[in-house]
Amino acid sequence: MPGPSDAFPLLQLDNVTKILGGKPVVKSVSFSVVPGEVLTLIGPSGAGKSTLLRCINFLTPPDDGRVYLNGVDVCPTYRPGKHPRHADLAKLRRRVGMVFQSFELFPHLTVLRNVTLAQQRVLGRSRVAATARAVELLERVGLADKASSYPSQCSGGQQQRVAIARALALDPEILLFDEPTSALDPELGAEVLAVMRDLAFAGTTMIVVTHALHFARSVSDRVIMMADGAIIEDGSPAQVLESPHHPRTRQFIRAVLEDQ
Fold first, then answer.
1. Regarding predicted confidence, which is higher, 4 or 114?
2. What is the architecture of the domain spanning 11-104+175-259?
3. pTM for the complete prediction?
């Protein structure tokens, strides 16, 4: 897989901090991602990985620091303790897609309608155009035959692939994945990781929170290890996963491999 170009950063985090319950769970995190890059975040539970993802798209607004897309502050008028402007959030979430570990599909809508709804409401596409795009994406994730099914009629792996198709339908510039296989058994999780691998090879810019070290090793351009809300290691998959510098990274990788 070709590596990412030396382009201007698509996404940049500058000292992002989040405090929950009086405790800092994300501590002055800074990094950047260039177009086409696949960045994997690893670390123990409670390290702040999922909270960090939610800070990026302001599902959980940060208490300090800034987030930039193509060098532009995503919420320029935001101040901690205030509500971000709705217009800023709508624009941000059109550009930054997110796939959750719990799928978050509408149970009363068909698979097809789950993928078309946001296109019509957020992008203003016609029903015909949204349906055409949805069919194309369902084919891409291997679920064209499930278009008329409801989420309850799909396996967990299939539901997660629908969620990926839904996120892609808004044509985001970057996709965030929050433990996309953690709720799935290994076989179904492999289906989802295969789709994500295809996206990576197609040049999709991605940030992935996962414990699937084989995915991180084979697909990522970079791996960041987090612990106690901070980045403790940042490097290539070979360096971080095979020759980690930090003893906490070595401990985490050993524990994950023993559990797999």
1. 114
2. 3-Layer(aba) Sandwich (3.40)
3. 0.92
